[in-house]
Design goal:
Structural class: mainly alpha
Shape: extended
CATH topology: MetI-like fold
Number of domains: 1
Helix content: over 70%
Strand content: under 5%
Oligomer: single chain
CATH class: Mainly Alpha
Radius of gyration: 22 Å
Largest sheet: none
Length: 193
């Protein structure tokens, strides 16, 4: 399932390279690396511009690939909620379509999205990051972890896994707080352990 998250970003990265960096159509952005060869001679503002110029295509590829996967997850959640019995009942009672969609379907469908968002984001971000880092020749956390596994460098493997875990826990905490904010009926403090 995690590999499925990386496919849209990978394909979009290839499309971006062909259109904007490969010289096939428009040669607007660099094809590889994080900085230009003359990066040390640039002014402070020139270094900032050069860095953003190099990072534009990888960030767009990761964002659009993540957006495609998250959109598919949201669409499936909304389609599941629209066909439930309470929606049919609300329509039968005479509620207008706007009230049914925003008052009932949206809130319940977003609960599913919010609950599944941390695991989806971890899969989208880190799996896609490895492929995008390889495509654009960037030295990032995904490539570092992959090379550490291939070379059996255990301290680096544990370090990258630690960072992935911390990011996952922070996203889970944000997810739980957002979950309570979207649906105030949910209260984690009254749960028994």
């Amino acid at each position: 399932m995690i590999v499925g998250y990386a496919i849209p970003g990978f394909l979009f990265a290839i499309l971006l390279i062909v259109l904007f960096a490969g010289g096939t159509y428009w040669d607007l952005f660099p094809l590889r690396g994080l900085t230009s060869p003359d990066f040390d001679q640039l002014s402070a503002w020139g270094k900032v511009k050069d860095y953003f110029w190099h990072i534009t295509l990888p960030v767009i590829a990761a964002s659009i690939g993540s957006f495609a996967t998250l959109t598919m997850l949201t669409k499936n959640s909304f389609l599941d909620e629209i066909h439930k019995q309470y929606v049919i009942t609300a329509r039968a009672k005479g509620a207008d379509e706007r009230r049914v969609l925003y008052g009932h379907v949206f809130r319940n469908a977003m609960l599913i999205i919010i609950a599944g968002l941390p695991s989806a984001m971890i899969g989208i971000f880190f799996t896609g990051a490895l492929l995008i880092e390889v495509i654009f020749s960037l030295d990032g956390l995904g490539l570092l972890g992959f090379e550490a596994v291939m070379q059996r460098d255990y301290p680096v493997i544990f370090g990258t896994l630690f960072l992935y875990t911390v990011i996952g826990l922070i996203l889970k905490l944000i997810s739980d707080l957002t979950y309570v904010w979207v649906d105030p009926r949910i209260d984690f403090s009254t749960r028994e352990s």
